[in-house]
What does this fold into?
Amino acid sequence: MYWLLFALIAGVVLLVAAYAADDLPEPRRETFNCSADGSLWPYLVQPTSADPRAVLVNLHGHYSDHHQGMTVGTYNDHYGKLRRACLARNWAYVCPWYGGNSWMGPLAESGLCDLLSVLQARWPERPVYLSGGSMGGSSTLVFAVRRPDLLDGIVARCPAADIESYYAFAAASDNPTLQNIASAIRIHYTADGRDLSSELRARSALYHAERLEMPVYLCHGAKDELIPVGPTRALVARLTELGRRVRYLELPEGNHDAPATQVDNWRETMDFLEGA
It folds into this structure.
């Protein structure tokens, strides 16, 4: 029994090591100043040529940080594949920390605006795309309806397309993870005495779908129990009604991790963002 467990662990270690031995460049750690609170926030940049064609900013998930999007081997090497796709297309790839489990509350929104200003000064007139999964996908949608002027396209995997109804769902659950998520949303959305209900409505992509004029790529598992698929379907329907450029991939048997573990279509996704 123990030898079997050891063999399985050794196999996982070797598999991750094989991914890590790839020829991906070492990310650079940099910082920027968050003007809202005056603190320095870290981000990672995958080195590329001095003249990248575009900039892709990837937002991490709940319980994670800016290292997630640079980590190879996890989620069926989801991020390793994304990093290679960016290199092949000569896109700058950036993974920021954005306030912890912030779900793109007011402070995170302000900080991301500051980061995009830094990136645009470094690479002027380049298209800027925002991507993420789970909390990262939810935060992508929130930021896109809050600051659509700063983005040229978005990718949201397993997102809470309506943060207002998702908060109610999470707060009413006895699942410890959902309770933690509800607490995080409440804390970050009510900072500086802000009203929770007002912030939830102001940050709902479904409620403000008309603001999403950029290309929108969405992917969700139909059997996702952590972030239910219903609001994503509703957002797709609303964007289609508005005549927006939207592409939606639903995985009929997919759980919450399925958009990362079962889907390997970065080339197609990037083509869509570029209008190909």
The longest helix spans residues 2-20. Residues 19-274 form a domain with the Rossmann fold fold (CATH 3.40.50.1820). The radius of gyration is 18 Å. The mean pLDDT is 93.
